[in-house]
Amino acid sequence: MRLCYLSRNYKNVALGGGKAKTDIEQTLAAMGTVNLGLRQTRSTNKIYDFVRNLTGVLRTMWRLQKGDVLVLQYPVKKWFEPLCKAAHRRQAKVVAIIHDLGSFRRKRLTVAEEIARLNHADVVIAPNPYQQQWLVEQGCRARVTVYGLHDYLSDEVIEPAHSAPEPDAAGKVHFSACFVGNLSPKINGYLYRLADRLHEVTLHLYGPSFAEGESRSNAPLQYHGFGHDMTLMRSIEGDFGISWYGESIAGPEGALGEYMAFNNPHKVSLYLRCGIPLIIWRKAGLGSLVEREGIGLVVESLEELEERLTTLPLEEYRTMQENVRRVVTQIASGGSCRRAVEEAMALLQA
User: Is the distance from CB of 294 to CB of 320 less than 8 angstroms?
Assistant: First the structure.
């Protein structure tokens, strides 16, 4: 049984985008998986990428053999069904690793259309148990397993340098939090409202579109500009990384709340690679994993943030950091991808 994959040029790879997908390709290659497409290049030319990806799709269809298992990263837009049909014509199987569902945040497909598309695969790897259950309930006939935390590979071997804060002269520990991502008030406006509620907890922000003046002048808010992931791993400010979406600090609502429940933010793995525990919504797709593994705080609302951090025992934080170090050994080496693909292969052989 030959394990294969289709390498593609992903959007903005040259600018740091598509990292989750390129990390999967890198791990598959390290597992000895055969790339049936073209070698990935770092391009920002949309026309070039389209032609190259189309060529890779056609080349993959031609090179598939009987007994192959083709790993596809979903969505592959218009090419997913043709690739699955080509694989089955050649008596090969298809494993689909889901990154995003078009029927959720972007609403580009109906739920029925999405399930019909995924039913062309033999095994589907969902990001988390919530999406796994939803797929089954919606009529997905493919066997479904779970991916878990995104891997986060790096060209260099980096040991996170972040350490636990030391108590002050009075024995008080001052924990802080950070957020890495787009800081536009239109996208993550809750950050500025959160800063207005903080008094003893400093909020560190990294990313583009920072809006100075959106919070009160004396809010404990520090902006550090845009930080490359390798730099953040060595020098991030903040003892916890916030993973949150939406406008409300009380809890994600509507479509964004649904998105958090069914998807695994890649940002979570970056925080872990930086050596810091997480702050995440209890109903998020990764909420139960964070709680089970002891790698952060799960909250109903960010309104809890100051109280939770000002009353957190230092030893509890150090235990979380140890748990983070344990988890990082897996995601820094492609452990999530290897385990998920191995489970998919076992389902095919069962």
Answer: yes
Say if residue 198 is in the same domain as residue 323: yes
pLDDT at 99: 94
Residues 144 and 34 in one domain: yes
Average of pLDDT values for 170-186? 93
The conformational region for residue 84 under phi > 0 = left, psi -120 to 50 = alpha, else beta, is: alpha
Beta bridge partners, 178, equal 204, 241
- Average pLDDT of span 120-149: 96
Q: At what angle do helices 335-349 and 19-30 cross, to 10 degrees?
A: 60
Q: Which amino acid is at 252?
A: P
Cα(90)–Cα(63) distance, rounded to whole angstroms?
Answer: 10
Please tell me the predicted confidence (pLDDT) of residue 17: 52
My answer on whether 183 and 314 are in the same domain is yes
Q: Do 112 and 208 have their domain in common? A: no
Expressed as residue numbers, the domain containing 112 is: 3-151+335-349
pLDDT at site 256:
65
- 296 and 190 fall within a common domain: yes
User: Per-residue confidence at 183, pLDDT binned at 50, 70, 90?
Assistant: very high
How many domains does the chain fold into?
A: 2
List the single range of 48-57, 194-203, 257-266, 339-348 with lowest mean pLDDT. Answer: 257-266
Q: 166 with 220: CB under 8 angstroms?
A: no
Contact indicator for 33, 43 with CB cutoff of 8 Å: no
Contact indicator for 311, 172 with CB cutoff of 8 Å: no
Task: Give 63-92 as a 3 state SS string.
Answer: HCCCCCEEEEEECCHHHHHHHHHHHHHCCC
Local confidence band at 338 (pLDDT 50, 70, 90 cut-offs)? very high
d(CA 142, CA 136) in angstroms, rounded, equals 9
Strands (E), 99-218: 123-126, 143-146, 177-180, 203-206
CA distances from 88 to 65, 74, 94, 342 (A): 10, 17, 8, 21
The torsion angles phi and psi of 152, rounded to 5 degrees, stand at -140, 90
Q: Yes or no: say if 83 and 70 are a contact pair by the CB < 8 Å rule.
A: yes
CATH of the domain at 202: 3.40.50.2000
